[in-house]
Amino acid sequence: MTLRVGFCGAGRMGTEMVTALTRQGFVVTVWNRTAARALATAEQTGAEVADTPALAAKNADVVITMLTDGEAVLRTLAGDDGVLAGAREGMVVVDCSTTGAHAARAAADRCAAAGVSFIDCPVSGSTLVAREGKLGLMAGGDAAAIDRVRPVLDALGTVVQVGPTGAGAAAKVSINALLHTFSTALAECLVTARAAGVSTPALFDVLSVGVLWNRFLDYKRAAFTDPDGTAVAFDLRTATKDLGLAARAADDAGLRESVVRRALELHRHALDDGLGDRDMAAMTAWFAATADPPGRTERN
Hints:
The protein is an alpha/beta fold. The chain has helices at residues 12-23, 35-45, 53-57, 70-77, 101-113, 127-131, 143-148, 150-156, 167-195, 200-208, 215-225, 236-252, 259-272, 283-289, and strands spanning 5-8, 28-31, 48-49, 62-65, 92-95, 117-120, 123-124, 135-140, 157-163. 51% of the residues lie in helices and 12% in strands.
């Protein structure tokens, strides 16, 4: 029997994940806090629309949440109109949001109190990768519950079971910490190379034939080389949120020094300068805008 899917969250990634599921024959009911986004996703994918999270869950075997942060996940689970109010026996909640381990464990506790299984299963990959059903999924939680919803997870990409509840969320925070520190360093290096006469496309050409080339550089190349002509795929505000989770993980691990904390500081400065809605690649523009005049050796 094909599993029925409730899907909460019709943002950029959520819409593409719904696309991947409906293309592979799953019946999906989608809810979003802003109803217009859910309607647009339904028109694009053929999914049904629910007015509340509870209605999205009503007939579902699995409910996927793909929301902004841990607080949004907990709000969507709770209350008279929340997912757990519409849950039925045997349903599994799969949270694909980037929340951090603390929020994942809190969500698991709420689900357990309602007799519902919970899997923290954040994803790695771009919107294009999501549409193609080729995401990387890192699953934390009970192995039996993961197996029950395996067909749905496999439709979204490749699943790696990383440990108990919270492990999936922790793995995603670590991956995003590496992603955003790499991207921040890349942005700085593009600006310094350009100041020395190396164009951004030329540096990407050099990278493409060297050991540092990777999938991130491949699909983000346009965002760095043609920022005005490339749609936002991952905005700076969300990147800053992710770095905040990574900084908390560094604190939890007892790290006295942290590259992540410095990257977070830089991103917060970029947000203060009004770049939050731009793509994460806009850190390049921020570094360039805040640079001192050429030849100056000391900052004020």
